[in-house]
Amino acid sequence: MITLRKITLENRRAIFNLEVSEEQRRFVASNLSSVASCYVLATNGGHPLPFAIYSDEQPVGFVMLTYGITGYEIPSIAHDSYCILRLMVDKHYQNQGYGREAMNKILDFIRTYPAGPAHYCWISYKADNLPAKKLYESFGFRDNGEIFGDELITVLTL
Ligand SMILES: CC(C)(COP(=O)(O)OP(=O)(O)OC[C@H]1O[C@@H](n2cnc3c(N)ncnc32)[C@H](O)[C@@H]1OP(=O)(O)O)[C@@H](O)C(=O)NCCC(=O)NCCS
Fold first, then answer.
1. What is the CATH number of the domain that holds 112?
2. Where are the alpha helices (DSSP H) in 7-157?
3. Distance from residue 94's CA to the centre of ligand 1 (Å)
């Protein structure tokens, strides 16, 4: 069973060691860098929610959620919305349904509105990241035509 768990003193190294394949590195930052970004967000008025993705007792991935980022250059959708950032499943555990199951759990969690109310959830992704695009579309995300840096914005109405 897939669960989302807190990053702890005990599991942090295992989470930092999870990685995507070399060809996928341009799609997502390292988990170490993502956790560092969480610190910067948290100390600058943001609401980062980083999680380890576990399959039973095995860490298999990482995801970071944010809510209503302020003070950053952000797409217009970002205010009072949840963002799914840095979703990754380690290269050894991909294509086994973990990413899809993690998305189910992530959206269930977002729909508890843990950091505040919201109408939308958004994700930015590189146009040629077809597995990610297919995954997000299957959950009802649709591109809104906005481009953020070199990434497309896809949006789900909660
Ligand atoms: C995107 C990612 C998280 C998916 O995780 P995963 O555990 O491999 O995905 P799953 O096995 O649950 O597959 C879920 C869906 O993803 C899509 N998918 C996964 N691998 C794919 C591939 N090689 N080609 C096309 N679609 C693919 C399919 O839509 C699949 O749905 P299905 O159940 O109908 O087959 C994983 O590929 C990953 O970590 N990629 C690198 C990091 C990244 O790109 N993150 C997204 C940043 S925006």
1. 3.40.630.30
2. 12-17, 31-42, 98-110, 130-138
3. 7
Mutate to test the pocket of ligand 1, among 100, 124, 139 (most ligand atoms within 8 A of CB): 100
Binning pLDDT at 50, 70 and 90, where does residue 71 land?
low
Among protein residues, the one whose CA lies closest to atom 23 of ligand 1: 131
CA of 53 to the centre of ligand 1 (A): 14
Give φ, ψ of 141 to 5 degrees: -70, 140
Q: Which domain holds residue 12?
A: 2-157
What domain count does the chain have? 1
- Smallest CA-to-CA distance from 41 within 4, 76, 86 is with 86
| CA 93 to ligand 1: nearest atom | 7
Beta-bridge partner residues of 55: 2, 58
Residue identifier of the C-alpha nearest atom 33 of ligand 1? 97
Confidence of residue 72 (pLDDT cuts 50, 70, 90): low
**Ligand 1 site, residue 100, Cβ cutoff 6 A:** yes
pTM score, two decimals? 0.94
